[in-house]
Amino acid sequence: MITVSRLRTLWLLLLPCLLAACAHALQGTCTAVADGDTISVRDHAAAQTVKVRLNGIDAPETAQEYGQESKRYLASRILGKTVRVEGGNRDKYGRLLGTVYLGAENMNLTMVRQGWAWDYTKYCAGPEYTAAQRQARTARCGLWRQQDPLPPWIFRHPDQAPASASSSSAAAAHRTDAGDYMYWISNNGKTHNRSCRWFLGNSGTGRYTNTPGAVDAKCCGGAHR
């Protein structure tokens, strides 16, 4: 007769195997980098391309401050190289949620450690990510060069910003130094025009001017050259 105690023991022994069976791992070549947390991988075994969302992190959107820099950093590390993806779930867009490894290096964690992505606490990947973000912020790495960087989840849904937030979206109404200037140039050199949400909704790390910079911000067209 099998007792409850024996069933419990059997379940504990089988659980790791069941979890491993549910997990999905693939090895392939990174063929594209959409942004700092989304890539495409050509699965060597299945001979198909899989879109992968790096789990547990959230990188700036490409139209956001440091979004392009985040994308370029990730591309410089893994584009055209063989990576391993460990994950099992899919998000609502059908992307595989996974941890991307370049050799033994956890690239999800590297993106946070280098300051090119946030620890996405809504989908917590572990305390090491929180520690990595804290270190990057202290060292002012990547996006943390900004005084008050805007989290990408607030950038996507500004209406969800906490009323007490000190982020750009919450501080927009408090920028009183715009005057009659035509442009705001962010600290990474991108030109935003007066119609842009970031003309007033910026964190104050750039400058207002009537002379546009060399690079137009994609989100508003900048000087429309």
Describe the overall structure.
This protein is α+β, with helices and mostly antiparallel strands. It contains 7 helices and 12 strands. A hairpin with a 5-residue loop joins β5 and β6 (96-102). The relative contact order is 0.12.
Give a summary of the structure in a few sentences:
Helix content is 28%, strand content 26%. The protein has 225 residues and is of the alpha+beta class.
Could you give the topology of this structure?
Elements lengths: L3 H19 L1 E12 L2 E6 L4 E7 L2 E2 L8 H12 L3 E9 L5 E7 L2 E2 H7 L4 E2 L7 H13 L12 H5 L11 H4 L11 E3 L4 E4 L3 H4 L6 E3 L5 E2 L9
Parallel strand pairs: 3-6, 10-12
Antiparallel strand pairs: 1-2, 1-5, 2-3, 4-8, 5-6, 6-7, 9-10, 9-11
